[in-house]
Design brief:
Layout: E1 7-8, E2 15-25, E3 28-35, E4 43-49, E5 52-53, E6 67-68, H1 69-84
Parallel strand pairs: 5-6
Antiparallel strand pairs: 1-2, 2-3, 3-4
Length: 87
């Protein structure tokens, strides 16, 4: 059985429930949260995004391009190295 994502209210620290969601893009889902503490009443929106692939799909969908973890790590290292040259 899959484990459900758990989000904590940033105000009262109680659990939050995902009340609704919609696909904005095949790699992006918009979520709406509600705090379970009725005395708090906090509601908010957020995003869940797929950013990179760990293992490529055996049946890839045209138009979906995801970088690998190694490509992202190399990009970040290069950016950090470039910033280090300015100091």
């Amino acid at each position: 059985m899959a484990q459900r994502s758990k989000f904590q209210c940033p105000h009262c620290k109680e659990s939050m429930t995902i009340r609704s969601s919609r696909e904005a893009h095949p790699l992006l889902r918009q979520l709406w949260f509600q705090c379970s503490n009725y005395l708090c009443g906090f509601t908010c929106g957020g995003n869940l995004e797929i950013t990179h692939q760990i293992s490529p799909s055996a049946c890839p969908r045209p138009g979906i391009q995801l970088k690998t973890h190694d490509e992202i790590t190399a990009q970040r290292k290069a950016a950090n190295d470039e910033l280090a040259n300015y100091t």
